Amino acid sequence: MSSVEALCRHCRQTFVATAPPPLVCSHCGRPQSEARAPQPLLDECQACGCPMLYRQRDFNRSLGLVLVILSGLLALAGYAWGGFWVGTGVLVAATLCDRLLVVTRAEVVVCYRCHAIHRGFQPHSRLVFFDLATHDAYRGQDVPDQSA
Q: Which of 38, 71, 85, 140 is least enclosed by beta carbons within 10 angstroms?
């Protein structure tokens, strides 16, 4: 089942919608912008209609950051008390765990403009993984409130 997790531009609350567009906020009940119904391949954001999307693995970013910090601290301790091979072994184990997570996690599609997360959609073949230059081009472009 496909779903879209987005930030409502009216009440600024995060909501998850499983119905086809227009998406309706579960908190305030107001519809978001009209996007086309999804084609066989997702090629625009279902929350704001922006065509600039990217793919990423569906993994909690905060948990990922905690794992990186923990791996770094364990490697530092390994280098300090166990020597080169223990510290390097910790880093190799962390890298293998990361690769395992990358292989086992499903892909999601994220909008550069409104950061809506699309789960369960088939991404268009033109979509690539995150690009910092594109992200910087869309930074600060808030999706306007259409309450007027």
A: 140
In which order are the strands placed within the sheet that holds 117-119?
14-17, 3-7, 117-119, 107-111, 53-57
The pLDDT tens digits of the residues spanning 13-33 come to: 889 988 777 788 888 888 876
| Cα 7 versus chain centre, distance | 13
Q: How many CB atoms within 10 Å of residue 4?
A: 27
pLDDT in tens, 33-47: 665 666 667 888 888
Q: Give the per-residue SS3 of the chain.
A: CCEEEEECCCCCCEEEECCCCCCECCCCCCECCCCCCCCCCECCCCCCCCCCEEEEECCCHHHHHHHHHHHHHHHHHHHHHHCHHHHHHHHHHHHHHHHHHHHHCCEEEEECCCCCEEECCCECCCCCECCHHHHHHHCCCCCCCCCC
The model's pTM: 0.77
Encoded tokens for 22: 């227009």
Q: What separation, in Å, do the N-terminal and C-terminal C-alpha atoms of the chain show?
A: 33
